Amino acid sequence: MEKPRSARDDEFTAYVAARAPWLRRVAYLLCQDWHRADDLVQTAVTRLYVNWRRASKADNLDGYARTVLVRGYLAEQRGGWGRRVRVMESTPDEPAPDPPADLDLRRALAALPPGQRAAVVLRFYCDLSVEQAAAVLGCSTGNVKSQTSRGLDALRRKLERPVAEGER
């Protein structure tokens, strides 16, 4: 028997209220921009609502929501939105000083291609197995392994500190 619409809406609202901060952090790690992360979360939440009847029956609702979020991010990357739209951030407060470029993991993560970034975030931030990440990304386990390996290699190269003469 199907739940009344108001009960489904209450269930959906409770889920989104509880998990929105987590979804926003995952979205930020993917796109490296808080405004864009908010847009990604809004798109994912909208898709989740449209499919709530199916989503609410999923064994792992967080996994379902994460999959919707990551696939939305990758679809946006393929569509070229990031190349066409440049959001200029202006804040009234002074921003915190940037850490040295060689120590900024976020900057290094942002430099990765979208597929590698998604694989690294899913594997190490979301703590998914290769098989789980492949299911989220809709690709083979070999592709996840390859994207993760390339992403980690690129991060290591980017974050490697040059050895000073006196340190040898």
Task: Please give the structural blueprint.
Layout: H1 5-31, H2 34-50, H3 52-55, H4 61-79, H5 81-84, H6 105-110, H7 114-125, H8 130-137, H9 141-159
Helix pairs in contact: 1-2, 1-4, 1-7, 2-4, 7-9, 8-9
Briefly characterize the structure.
This protein is mostly helical and 168 residues long.
Description:
It is a single chain. By secondary structure, the protein is an all-alpha fold. It folds into two domains: 85 residues, Rna Polymerase Sigma Factor, Chain: A (Orthogonal Bundle); 61 residues, Arc Repressor Mutant, subunit A. Helices cover 69% and strands 0% of the residues. It has nine helices and no strands. The longest helix is centred in the N-terminal third of the chain and has 27 residues. It is globular, with a radius of gyration of 19 Å. It comes from Actinomadura algeriensis. InterPro entries: RNA_pol_sigma-70-like, RNA_pol_sigma-70_dom, RNA_pol_sigma-E_actinobac, RNA_pol_sigma70_r2, RNA_pol_sigma70_r4_t2, RNA_pol_sigma_r2, RNA_pol_sigma_r3/r4-like, WH-like_DNA-bd_sf. Keywords: DNA-binding, Sigma factor, Transcription, Transcription regulation. It holds the Pfam family Sigma70_r2.
